Automatic annotation (TrEMBL):
The protein's Enzyme Commission number: 1.1.1.262
Protein name in UniProt: Pyridoxal phosphate (Active vitamin B6) biosynthesis PdxA
Classification via InterPro entries: PdxA_fam
UniProt-listed Pfam families: PdxA
Gene3D superfamilies, alphabetized: Isopropylmalate Dehydrogenase
SUPFAM superfamilies named among the record's database cross-references: Isocitrate/Isopropylmalate dehydrogenase-like
One of the GO biological process terms: pyridoxal phosphate biosynthetic process
GO MF term set: 4-hydroxythreonine-4-phosphate dehydrogenase activity; metal ion binding; NAD binding
Upper lineage: unclassified sequences, metagenomes, ecological metagenomes
């Protein structure tokens, strides 16, 4: 990470319930995973640390242990009682998610004026605070193909998204859209925005991962501390084989250093 980032490394042990075997999951260790997240989050909220960097976590095994869990983002949000937003950032692209880990069939009902106002507010403030953008430009994607095609391919844009964006523009936000997702990421379009708000998980992550799989970073905006993470999953099939790439983790650590330094400078 560079000479300026080098220093002492403190290791805080959290005991496993069962010995680990690389590449194999054990429901008896699910509570251990959540304990590490809880202790790290609480220490950051108490001001002991400026940032939290996480690796991937297997959501399924935690739920198999009988513990409802949809992801880091939601866990940290509940722990801090904060309105948060998932932002995926690569060297040349930032994409936030209006909804995160929902079945696709549940997404349309989740796109409400209240949700859009909330997530756009978190994104607007996060870009200002953590990325130093006084007046960020945000492109908002439509939910339906071709952003609804004037209602012929769905009415969510007409009934929900457009009126909400118009109201927020009136409050001073610089918002573009709703834009068709299939053209919003074209090189010519990117010059007109600083970040994108996508309506659902797979509208955003394939684009970011195709462009910056090894360097993409997952950032949780809205927390009282900086939190970053890798943009990939657990890859159990290569665990213990010395084949894992570390670039995304290094990118997450570098981003945490940058964002926490900016917050400290602004304090």
């Amino acid at each position: 990470l560079g000479a300026r980032a080098r220093g002492r490394l403190r290791v805080l042990p959290v005991a496993l319930a069962q010995p680990e075997t690389p590449g194999h999951l054990d429901v008896r260790n699910a509570a251990y995973v959540l304990e590490t997240l809880a202790r790290a989050s609480d220490a950051c909220r108490a001001g002991h640390y400026a940032a939290l960097v996480t690796g991937p976590v297997h959501k399924g095994i935690i739920n198999d242990a009988g513990i409802p869990f949809t992801g880091h983002t939601e866990f940290f949000a509940a722990r801090a009682a904060a309105d948060v937003l998932m932002l995926l950032a690569g060297p040349h692209l930032r994409i936030a998610l209006a909804t995160t880990h929902l079945p696709l069939a549940a997404v349309p009902a989740a796109i409400t004026p209240e949700r859009l106002r909330r997530v756009l507010g978190v994104l607007w403030r996060g870009l200002q605070r953590d990325f130093g953008m006084p007046a960020p430009r945000i492109a908002v994607l439509g939910l339906n193909p071709h952003a609804g095609e004037n209602g012929h391919l769905g009415r969510e844009e007409i009934d929900i998204i457009i009126p909400t964006l118009d109201a927020l523009r009136g409050a001073g936000m610089h918002l573009l859209g709703p834009l068709p997702a299939d053209t919003a990421f074209a090189p010519a379009a990117r010059a007109h925005y600083d970040a994108v708000l996508a309506m659902y998980h797979d509208q955003a992550l394939p684009v970011l991962k195709a462009e910056a799989f090894d360097t993409g970073v997952n950032i949780t905006l809205g927390l009282p501390y900086v939190r970053t993470s890798v943009d990939h999953g657990t890859a159990l099939d290569i665990a213990g084989h010395n084949r894992a790439e570390v670039n995304s983790l290094l990118s997450a650590a570098r981003m945490a250093l940058q964002l926490s330094a900016r917050r400290a400078q602004a304090a």
